[in-house]
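hey can u run this one w/ zinc ion bound, need the structure tokens asap thx
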Amino acid sequence: MSALRFVDRPSPNFDARTRSIDLVVLHYTGMQDAETALARLTDAAPVAGRYPGPWQAKTAAPDAPLARVSAHYVVAEDGTVYRIVAEQSRSWHAGASSWRGVGDVNARAIGIEIVNGGHDFGLPEFPPAQIDAVTTLLHDILARHRLRPAQVVAHSDIAPDRKQDPGEKFPWKRLADAGVAIWPERGSATPAGDTSIATVQTQLAAIGYAVNQTGVMDAQTKAVLMAFQRRFRPALIDGAADDETRALIAALVHAL
Ligand SMILES: [Zn+2]
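ok here u go:
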């Protein structure tokens, strides 16, 4: 694997980290190009008029303030890695989110923004050079912080009711094969006779998803099932607890 090409592009959007690092969150930028995403992620006073796009109403006032956002790294399509916030600082990428029962994900996470138009721009493929760079960067981060592959998650995993990134085109299996993410081995577990939603909810929570244990199929459970499928069964993302989905959930719990 080749060495990373780093470019420093400091963002003023960060504050003090209040927890130790135990998570890496992967995102797509969801904007038209790398320059626009870098501008937004390093803008101390972003306003709507500077970032026109499908994420806001055309009637938004040009001077309407937007949230200040950032990440630690931005990985371009050609594999260039922009360092925008130092790892020891808390960058602002996760928003309202939770994993393994702990919120304020920004306080405990390293955020990586992967340049990709995402759902608003037709879900473009991720170029191999970009995925190679993400993989190398993750190897480095996991080693330095002594994290396991299971501690690399999607933004959609930690905010399933709000977020879809990095999206169903993201090659999680390839990352897992490289040892920097997890993947359920098909056939290593079959769903037990117990097909209850209560069991599915218990298992999803054991993986880390924030799901209230209601015992019934409800909107929050469906949102979490869709997040699970988007990452581990991207061929069909419908939020149904079908046999294959339950087998994959059980296999993942088994592998943790
Ligand atoms: Zn995101």
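Helices lie at 34-41, 105-108, 128-145, 155-158, 172-177, 197-207, 219-232, 243-255. anyway lmk if its weird
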